[in-house]
Amino acid sequence: MDMMATVSSMLAMQASGTQMQMAASFIKQNADAEKSAVLTLLGAGQNSSANLGAGVGGSLDVSA
Fold this sequence. Notes:
The structure is a single chain. Helix content is 62%, strand content 0%. By secondary structure, it is mainly α. The chain contains 1 helix and no strands.
């Protein structure tokens, strides 16, 4: 194997490693975004009346 083929092979492996790191980063970002969307839809970690004005729902009769 001549020197240029060796150098070319090493550069290709380095570029492949960079591509894999970028792909892993994108996958993690997408997973984080999906997790955030699901938690938002489920209302996890939030008070369901957080966006309501003061006193709204305070005297709700649920016994009937």
